[in-house]
Design a protein that fits this description.
3 helices; 73% helix; Ribosomal_uL29_sf; ribonucleoprotein; structural constituent of ribosome
Length: 67
């Protein structure tokens, strides 16, 4: 999980790449949960991923970049 100051220092391309990676990771976490995999173990990861996605989207919106 990255802080806002670190995210603000990243380039737009880096942010978009990180956003893509996080969305894939969130999908995999949800898939594992739905198929009966690590359901009870790492539930905190989904929350952290969602929050980092929100932070990245906030920085992109501040810069006027919509996706």
């Amino acid at each position: 999980m990255k802080k806002m100051s670190v995210l603000r220092e990243m380039s737009n391309e880096e942010l978009l790449n990180r956003l893509s990676e996080l969305r894939k990771e969130l999908f995999l976490q949800r898939y594992k949960l739905s198929t009966g995999g690590t359901g009870g173990e790492k539930t905190h990861l989904r929350r952290e991923i969602r929050r980092e996605i929100a932070r990245i989207l906030t920085v992109l919106r501040e810069r006027g970049i919509t996706r």
